[in-house]
Amino acid sequence: MGKGMSANEKAGILGIAGGILMLIAGLTGAVAWRTIGEMTVEFTQIEALGSVFQILVILGSLGGFLVMLGGLLFLLKLKIITKETRVKVGKILIAIGAGFGLLSLIIFIVLALFGENPLSSFFGALGIGFAGLILSIAARATAQ
Predict the structure, then answer these.
(1) Residue 54 belongs to what domain range?
(2) Based on the structure, what is the number of domains in the chain?
């Protein structure tokens, strides 16, 4: 009988699947940071803060991609990078990507609750996006 998948192989598959679901659901975090940035600039009247939030928008737009990249690092077996380094960097990438996705999900749910059809928007947000976040968190926890 063949050997089963290692913990890191399972984590890699979970991470890639979670990142894909986050991208499908639009939970990248970019919209959340753009909204927060616009509200901050409007409230403070400090236009320079807009540039700071543009950097966060760029990072936030990479949320699902960062999770997939972290999962890919768990799967790769490169001789030039130690296993410990791959796992550590993969966990950091997943944490950043999932963090941006979680913030985006929270803001989306809050905004959806004030929309025209809050119930359907709320459950739509909890579907694919929430599943992607759960898979991302599971991937980070599974990696060794």
Answers:
(1) 7-142
(2) 1
